[in-house]
Design brief:
The complex is a heterodimer of chains A (248) and B (275). Chain A is an all-alpha fold. Chain A has ten helices and no strands. In chain A, helix 1 crosses helix 8, helix 2 crosses helix 5 and helix 3 packs across helix 5. Chain B has ten helices and twelve strands. Classes of the chains: A mainly alpha (248), B alpha/beta (275). The interface between A and B is medium-sized, with 30 and 38 residues.
Chain lengths: 248, 275
């Protein structure tokens, strides 16, 4: 035990650098994923069959192919085909972004569909344009319902970043792996990794819970302080709004 | 009240008032089908400017569909709806032909129409004042101060001036519905559609809403088209009551006539069941 932690604390700059790579891949990857989730989520609701079809194909492709294989493909096959080499981190951001963007688009689509039809109708009755209806009325309500699912996806994305090891990006896992190789302390090395990923995931959860609380408060749905510390669970999106349904 | 919040300001189309070109609302041979189910069967009726018209009839007979068609929440299967001399359902196509109205055309005509829903449908992402000022600012282009002044006058009209910063979820159903009425009126519609506005309310809250509507009916020149199960309210505010059943208006007349001495057996049956 002593050997590993002595080595670990002697090489803290390496740890910080690995942590930096992991966080960069997580933050940039989820930023790309968020953008794509909205693009494909909105496309999936388009009136045009072509636009819906493109969204469907892209989403199914990225959901249906392995993240490992995509990563390998970007890092090893892409340069062979196009003669242009991509950095490991860039490959990671693109692959994570595409993959989780595909999952996220279903979240966006589902949340938009979950806003009661009556809210659209009230917006029509006030003669808002389709863009105003979406931006001012529907999206703020749908957003609240997206956050819990986005939290889950964000944590999953974080937990995928050790895959970067496979394409030689010096992320947290890679750095600690190397320490294990030097010291032979397998148990402590991996236990350290477990704890570090748990802490990272928990911090992200707390941040997302705070975001959710803020968004809910704006809809007048108050959650107690306990909600802030609640860990993620795959809860069904709550029906937001003061009203539901309509009448014929 | 000090100022009349419904008083129109600014340049007004005086032509429409003085020339009064026919009816404000015309339903002509309107058909609405859902699959094989015919809800409106070559329905025809008219509403004149300033009239207060109430639709009564059995539940599920399609009364609400009439209002929803007029609000463009649904599209006709066949027939024509005219609002203030313009077709709501059709617009000029190439070579003098007519084609189904698009969103832009309908938006133009929707300016004249407002609607209050059974379930209030306030926006939960906005407080009371924002609910009322949202459309006047973003649709009519009013500046915020003017929109807020208009909103506060309307909140006073509906007796909720102290609730401006409240959130919809903090209000009772009756209060929410009064906010919804203020929100619709803030757009200064010429026609206000009231779709069973008290049906979702607890009985003790119905009065507050009906009092507000009575006030509006008696003190403004707004045209009202209501669907309601409150027969006393219908009798009280209506110039004309239309008995609607099986996709058609089967009888139409003054409240005294319809409630006192209806011509049709079906009307008598219906009123016997609800009164």
């Amino acid at each position: 035990m002593g050997d590993f932690f002595t080595y670990f604390f002697d090489h803290l700059p390496d740890v910080w650098s690995g942590l930096g790579t992991t966080l960069a891949a997580t933050v940039l990857g989820s930023a790309v994923a968020l953008a794509l989730a909205f693009v494909f989520g909105f496309m999936a609701r388009s009136g045009s069959v072509l636009v819906r079809g493109v969204s469907r194909v892209v989403v199914e492709f990225f959901r249906g192919t392995s993240l490992y294989v995509q990563l390998f493909w970007l890092y090893y096959a892409f340069p062979l085909l196009f003669g242009y080499e991509l950095t490991p981190l860039f490959c990671g951001v693109v692959a994570f972004g595409m993959n989780y963007g595909a999952y996220g688009s279903e979240v966006v689509r589902g949340a938009l569909n979950a806003v009661p039809k009556a809210q659209w109708e009230a917006a029509v009755a006030l003669n808002m344009t389709p863009a105003q209806r979406m931006r001012r009325v529907i999206l703020p309500q749908a957003w609240v319902q997206m956050i819990p699912s986005f939290t889950n996806l964000l944590i999953q994305l974080l937990k995928c970043t050790p895959l970067l090891w496979l394409i030689s990006a010096a992320d947290l896992t890679t750095v600690v792996q190397q320490m294990r190789d030097r010291t032979g302390e397998t148990t402590w090395a991996y236990l350290t990794l477990l704890v570090m990923y748990f802490v990272l995931a928990y911090v992200l959860t707390l941040l997302m819970n705070a975001l959710e609380r803020h968004a809910k408060a704006r809809l007048g749905q108050h959650t107690g302080v306990r909600g802030l510390l609640r860990s993620r669970s795959a809860q069904p999106a709550e029906a937001a709004g003061t009203s539901a349904g309509g009448s014929l | 009240m000090a100022t009349d919040p419904l008083q129109k300001t600014g340049p007004e189309p005086s032509v429409a008032d003085t020339a009064a070109p026919g009816h404000l609302v015309v339903f002509d041979q309107v058909v609405k089908r859902y699959g094989d189910h015919v809800v409106l069967d070559h329905l025809g009726f008219t509403v004149d400017r300033g009239q207060h018209v109430t639709l009564i009839g059995p539940s599920g007979s399609g009364k609400t569909t009439i209002l929803r068609l007029l609000m463009t929440l649904e599209q006709v299967s066949d027939g024509v709806i005219m609002v203030d001399g313009q077709s709501l359902t059709h617009m000029p196509g190439p070579n003098g032909s007519l084609r189904p109205a698009n969103e832009k055309h309908q938006r133009e005509i929707r300016k004249k129409i407002g609607m209050v829903f059974q379930q209030f449908n306030l926006f939960p992402n906005m407080n009371v004042l924002q609910n009322i000022t949202e459309a006047p600012v973003n649709v009519l282009g009013l500046d915020r101060a003017e929109a807020e002044e208009r909103a506060r006058d309307l909140l006073q009209l509906v007796g909720l001036e102290e609730k401006a910063t409240a959130h919809p979820t903090q209000l009772s159903g009756g209060q929410q519905q009064r906010v919804a009425i203020a929100r619709a009126l803030a757009m200064r519609p010429e026609i206000l559609l009231l779709d069973e506005v008290t049906s979702a309310l607890d009985p003790e809250l119905v009065h507050g809403v009906l009092d507000v509507l009575r006030d509006i009916a008696h003190t403004t020149d707004i045209t009202l088209l209501c669907v309601t199960h409150e027969m006393n309210f219908a009798r009280d505010i209506s110039d004309r009551v239309m008995m609607f059943d099986k996709g058609k208006v089967i009888e139409s007349g003054t409240p005294e006539k319809i409630f006192g001495d209806p011509d049709h057996e079906r009307t008598r049956e219906f009123l016997g069941a609800v009164l």
